[in-house]
Amino acid sequence: MSPQGNKRRLGVVPGIALGVAAGLVLPALAFAGGSAVGAPAADTAGPGCQSFWVAPNGSDAANGSKAKPWRTVEHARDVIRTRDLTRDLRCDLVVNLKAGTYPVARTITFDDRDSGSNGHQVVYRSADGPGKAVFEAAEEVTGWEPYKDGIYKAKVDIDQPFYTLYVDGERATTARYPNRRSDEEWAPYLESVLIEPEKEAVRDQVGYTEGEWDETWNLNSYTDWPAQLMIWSGGSWSWFTDTVPIKNADWKDNKVILDYWTRYAMINSRAGSRYFVQNSLDLLDAEDEYYLDWATKELYYKPRGGTMDGKRVLRPTQTQVLSLAGATPERRLHDLAFEGLGIESTDFMQWYRSGWISAGDSGQKHKYPEYDRQIEMTRNRFGAVTLTNTRDVELTGLHLRDTGYHGVYLLSANDHVKISDSLLENIGADGIKVEGGYPGEGDVAHHNTFSNLYIDHVGELVPGDAAGIELMDTGSNEVSHVVVKHSARYGISLEARPEVKDGEGYALNNKFSYIRLEQTGLDSGDMGAFYTYGVDNQEPHPVQNTVKQMVITDVIPDASMPDSGTRGVHMDAGGCGFSFTDIEVGQVTDDKYQSYQCNEVTNANWVAGFDATKMEYDKIGVLPTFPYDVAGR
Ligand SMILES: [Ca+2]
């Protein structure tokens, strides 16, 4: 195999493949054997194969050699750009990042000027092994002093507020009422009541039961830092959550008025909406709760065990660590790879609502304006890693953790993107979200690979619509050897819109295999751990998406969940043209499988005659080569 070999075209495992492709010249991360320890990288690359070094204690005035590394990845990027080093590559151009923490004070951006060439990549890699070079979009908070009742406080030198907090690698809870039952649950909740007869449709006011709210609570009404509701709007529909600032309380009429309309109304015929109140110092009374006083720039936190000794508190500074964006769908960023990086501790936002309320609300003209309701609002289209207008970009061996919002977000035009061999955990919204373009306007998001992934705890801040992997109007993707664990709603979902005509939707020819969905549907209803919607909306329904070798463990929601039950597989309106082969579903509160007569099922445990010996249990989930230790999870 020649040193000029291209690993993607060789079609072998990443990491190992880099070592093969670059021969003895440039050993790659050792991804074998489940070890998190990688082999050290070689000092120099071969003739014509340039490599550079970056280290947390380096200097951007140095020369970028292993002995004199640079300090920032931005400097490496700029040197490569200005020297035009990516033109006519004969092998991969590698930037080695030494172990340590790289603070991200501003989102690191790459664009189409940073692409590889001739099929060779520009590679940014953690040289000391997977997860060793860490991009941290946060600053540590120190200088804690006792306040009262086991609460500590510290000054924070900030010029903008933050919307989540991390303590020792886990998310702390924004001070709330009622207090959460445990770290693993969002419950308990209060429930909205009808403000007055015929007011079911109201979306910006929440009626409460007399006595449930305390009129002495400081809600910071009419300020830029008000208390918020986290609410499953829609009454008994437990489909989406809003996090919405409170404008003010009307104590006389037992209601609060919100700054923005919620996704759905607060009441329907069966029930009110479940919610909790958060973001007031008066609600800080439980261990692991925090409150930022934005006006005085003081952070309050009640530590577990009564002491701040040994606790590392990180306040996020950025919502995004990496932005990978070509200028246009025609001018894409391509042949860029990130290997083994740690990416962590990003921020959330003050107001979140899933999608626009009505078709056309985006204000943009589209053939299918209904798709507005299915996708994120423009202001919310980002992840800790955001890709748009890319192709042949690889994210491998990542340890992506503690994000305020989505983990990796593929927005609009992206193809042949590969995310593999990665651990994602403690994710604010979706682990991986792909949002293809509007139906009927061009197939721009396809042929992406999501493989050998362990995605643990998603939707921590956006439990409504949470998914380990959510694919919107995108096709010819491969999703394999994936574990999704702990989600209030979906494990995996694939959606477009029921209005879309044949030939104008692109969520086709996707292949799902060797998947384990565990602890899903923890706090929502009318759902499936594997869910589809509006994919194939007209007869006939030839098989165009396939699912095989999937285990779904018990799907049991919180007792407070008022909606219809949970399912293993839910093929909602337009969930047609699928084949299911060798599927096993655990306990559910509704049907294991709900579908119209438009899909094929071969060997599933909701059908008589299920043959468990056809299940390849040992191949379901991540592969033995997985680079992080997830044993015992
Ligand atoms: Ca509380």
UniProtKB/TrEMBL annotation:
<dbReference type="Pfam" id="PF13229">
    <property type="entry name" value="Beta_helix"/>
</dbReference>
<dbReference type="InterPro" id="IPR011050">
    <property type="entry name" value="Pectin_lyase_fold/virulence"/>
</dbReference>
<dbReference type="InterPro" id="IPR039448">
    <property type="entry name" value="Beta_helix"/>
</dbReference>
<protein>
    <submittedName>
        <fullName>Parallel beta helix pectate lyase-like protein</fullName>
    </submittedName>
</protein>
<feature type="domain" description="Right handed beta helix">
    <location>
        <begin position="384"/>
        <end position="497"/>
    </location>
</feature>
<dbReference type="InterPro" id="IPR006626">
    <property type="entry name" value="PbH1"/>
</dbReference>
<dbReference type="InterPro" id="IPR012334">
    <property type="entry name" value="Pectin_lyas_fold"/>
</dbReference>
